[in-house]
């Protein structure tokens, strides 16, 4: 249990450092200004940190390429800010949970609209 709490705390610290860097530290023109870190998962052995980013607007592929090319720089900054024996390798992944949530919301709305139309037809008869 203590290991889980430690990796969770480290994940949160990595998220803070990477979020700060995305705001002010990275000068790559490929990286869109509308990038936010939604979650960070650090493996139990602290070798890898999966950073989930949400990209609003702009070219998703070029932004992800820019983030991957800045991975070494970001890893070095994480190492400066968080004192660990092993600095995790940063792996960026697109977080599409917002799009999936919007899709599910649209499906629920359509089903509710269909149900209300059916109730109206039943009431007319």
TrEMBL record:
Location in or out of the cell: Cytoplasm
Gene Ontology MF term list: ribosomal small subunit binding
Location (main, coarse): cytoplasm
Keywords from the UniProt entry: Cytoplasm, Ribosome biogenesis
UniProt superkingdom: Bacteria
InterPro entries in UniProt: KH_dom-like_a/b (IPR015946), RbfA (IPR000238), RbfA_dom_sf (IPR023799), Ribosome-bd_factorA_CS (IPR020053)
GO cellular component assignments: cytosol
Coiled-coil residue spans: none
GO biological process, one term: maturation of SSU-rRNA
Family: Belongs to the RbfA family.
Record's subunit section: Monomer. Binds 30S ribosomal subunits, but not 50S ribosomal subunits or 70S ribosomes.
PANTHER family in the cross-refs: RIBOSOME-BINDING FACTOR A, CHLOROPLASTIC-RELATED
Job of this protein: One of several proteins that assist in the late maturation steps of the functional core of the 30S ribosomal subunit. Associates with free 30S ribosomal subunits (but not with 30S subunits that are part of 70S ribosomes or polysomes). Required for efficient processing of 16S rRNA. May interact with the 5'-terminal helix region of 16S rRNA.
Protein name from the UniProt record: Ribosome-binding factor A
Organism encoding this protein: Asaccharospora irregularis DSM 2635
